[in-house]
């Protein structure tokens, strides 16, 4: 594998996509703790020109979890992990609240916090060699990054208990079947496919995508009646907005829509 340029910033803009590097080969693809604060800030203060967020690792793995050697070396392990989890959680919350889709390119292992970030992505692209694992029980710890909230909502309560308590390794095909990964491509195509998808989403109807993310989030706690009311309000508001007007007009005129930015 080619060496990684560790001078590349953890957070950068690629035209209309915010690219967040959460792990590099420099620390054995462990979670890049230094990336968490600037990443959360960039997501919270998202530039209006950004239409999607891409999460990636630049080493052999998407993210192998927190750096356990750093945990062990900390004079105050509890304080160290409290601070690290706090920084991670600010990023998780910022991603959840973002008005744009979040795509993850998941090569190799997504373990611990890496798996949590995959669970929080809207669309996760993996390959045949992709593996997910909670990894927390193996070192006597409990989940962070929202895994105990996200995982049951993806795979169901019973499967989540089994995965977490047995510290299960989930191969790529099972991860797709369970809904943890959206689809598989060749291992060599993960990064390119994820980046291309992020740019495609960024070029789409951004107002509609933001509203769809809101609807999906609200559905977790709404009753059916409440969700139907929210859907009615949302589609009516979309029809009155520039994105909805352009989409309908383009369809009738049989032309490609020119989505407002």
UniProtKB/TrEMBL annotation:
Protein name: Enoyl-CoA hydratase/isomerase family protein
Lineage: Bacteria, Bacillati, Actinomycetota, Actinomycetes, Mycobacteriales
Domain of life according to the entry: Bacteria
Family in the record: Belongs to the enoyl-CoA hydratase/isomerase family.
Pfam family, one: ECH_1
Coiled coil: none
């Amino acid at each position: 594998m080619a060496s990684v340029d560790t001078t590349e910033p953890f957070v950068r803009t690629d035209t209309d996509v915010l690219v967040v590097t959460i792990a590099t080969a420099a620390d054995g693809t462990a979670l890049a703790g230094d990336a968490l604060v600037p990443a959360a800030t960039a997501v919270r203060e998202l530039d209006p020109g950004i239409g999607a967020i891409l999460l990636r690792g630049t080493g052999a793995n998407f993210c192998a979890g927190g750096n356990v050697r750093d945990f062990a070396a900390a004079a105050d392990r509890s304080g160290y992990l409290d601070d690290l989890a706090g920084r991670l959680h600010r990023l998780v919350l910022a991603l959840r609240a973002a008005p744009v889709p979040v795509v993850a390119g998941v090569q190799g292992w997504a373990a611990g916090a890496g798996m949590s970030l995959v669970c929080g992505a809207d669309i996760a692209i993996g390959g045949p060699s992709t593996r997910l694992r909670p990894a927390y029980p193996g070192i006597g710890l409990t989940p962070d990054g929202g895994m105990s909230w996200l995982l049951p909502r993806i795979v169901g309560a019973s499967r989540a208990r089994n995965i977490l308590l047995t510290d299960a390794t989930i191969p790529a095909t099972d991860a797709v079947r369970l809904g943890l990964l959206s689809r598989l491509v060749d291992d060599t195509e993960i990064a390119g496919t994820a980046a291309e998808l992020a740019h495609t989403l960024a070029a789409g109807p951004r107002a509609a995508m933001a509203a769809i993310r809101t609807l999906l989030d609200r559905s977790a706690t709404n009753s059916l009646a409440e969700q139907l009311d929210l859907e009615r309000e949302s589609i009516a508001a979309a029809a009155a907005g520039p994105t909805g007007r352009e989409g309908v007009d383009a369809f009738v005129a049989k032309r490609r829509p020119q989505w407002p930015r």
